[in-house]
């Protein structure tokens, strides 16, 4: 599952005369600012806008905005309403991570799950279930301790890993099902 991360890049560049360039290095007049844009969609392009003004040194300042978007795989949250559709009804292998916000080992393994989602994008679907918000799913699959990672293929539970395990352990288990 891929999510879109977008940044607005604003640059200010100065075009100066020969006298001004000798006094100030060209990079001294350049700045870059990044801000996250909400609602950016894959494949969308925003037009660049520019603003030109005169500077006291006789040069021109030019401000340009452009949007830079990168697709990033992420672990999507699943709840009881979307469970059947996303996990059980999925023909691709799925990795489901059961966690809770108060669980220390869950917070330790979360970046590992994000890395695995990026590495196996298109091959597996990665999801997470908050056990506090979805106790019915947790009890249906016998989740008694967290973090627990379940591996599904063709909608059936194939294997489970309990605890904060190394990335290599999870990667080896994923490799069995892709």
Write the layout of secondary structure elements.
Elements: E1 2-15, H1 18-23, E2 31-36, E3 49-54, E4 60-73, E5 76-77, H2 83-88, E6 94-99, H3 104-119, E7 125-130, H4 135-140, E8 148-153, E9 156-162, H5 167-177
Parallel strand pairs: 5-7, 6-7
Antiparallel strand pairs: 1-2, 1-4, 3-4, 6-8, 8-9
Q: Main sheet?
A: 5 strands, mixed
Count structural domains. Answer: 2
CATH architecture of the largest domain: 3-Layer(aba) Sandwich
Series of H and E elements: EHEEEEHEHEHEEH
**Contiguous runs where pLDDT drops below 50 for at least 5 residues:** 1-55, 64-72
Short description:
This protein is α+β, with helices and mostly antiparallel strands. It is 25% helix and 38% strand.
What tags apply to this protein structure?
alpha+beta; Glutaredoxin; five-stranded mixed sheet; Thioredoxin M-type, chloroplastic-like; four-stranded antiparallel sheet; 178 residues; disordered N terminus; 2 domains; 25% helix; Thioredoxin; transport; single chain; transit peptide; redox-active center
